[in-house]
Amino acid sequence: MRKFNLVLAGLLAFMFMATKVQAQTAPSFYAGKWDVLIKGTPNGDVTLRFTLTEKDGKLDGSFVDPESKKDVPVSKIEVADGKITIFFTISTYDVNLAMDKVDDTHIKGSLMGMFDSTGERVKP
Predict the structure, then answer these.
(1) Which of 4, 9, 69, 116 has a CA between 20 and 30 Å from the CA of residue 85?
(2) Sign of CA pseudo-dihedral 15, 77, 49, 100
(3) Between β-strands 93-103 and 83-90, what pairing exists: parallel, antiparallel or unpaired?
(4) 34, 107 in Cβ contact below 8 A?
(5) In this predicted structure, what is the pLDDT of residue 22?
C-alpha cells in the first residue's frame, strides 16, 4: 500500500508539472514583434507592428499607430486554446484582433470578426 501511495503521489506531481509547463509555453509563441496586415478596412489595407512581451507567463504589448507613428499600449491580451486576442484603441475605436498560429512565423485571423488579417513575425 505504501508503494502505491508513493507512485500515486509521483504521478500527481508529474501531471501538475506538465500542466504548469504547458500553461507557460502558450503565450511565449506570441512574444516578439509582428507585422499584421488588416485587409479591407474603411481606410484600405492597414499594417500594424505589434510588440508583445511576456512577463510572469502573461503577455503585454503595444503597436505603432500608422498615423502618428507613436507607440500605443494595448488594452488587454488574452491567450486561450492557442488563439491570441489583442484588445486596443485605434482612431477612437475600441477593437479586438483575434489571431491563430499558422506556423512558426505566421498568424492569421480577423479584426472584429469582419476584416481578414495576416501576420508575420519580424526577424530580429
Answers:
(1) 69
(2) positive
(3) antiparallel
(4) yes
(5) 44
Beta partners for residue 73, in sequence order: 62
List pLDDT tens digits, range 14-34. 554 444 444 444 558 999 999
Euclidean distance between CA atoms 40 and 46, whole angstroms = 8
State pTM to two decimals.
Answer: 0.77
Q: Which helix (H) or strand (E) holds 21?
A: helix 2-30
C-alpha dihedral (20, 21, 23, 26), degrees to nearest 10:
180
| 38-90 pLDDT, tens digit each | 999 998 999 999 999 999 889 999 999 999 999 999 999 999 998 999 999 99
For residue 18, what pLDDT is reported?
45
**Would you list the DSSP string of 43-94?**
TEEEEEEEEEEEETTEEEEEEE-TTT--EEE-SEEEEETTEEEEEEEETTEE
Reading phi first (left if > 0) and then psi (alpha if -120 to 50, else beta), residue 47 is in beta
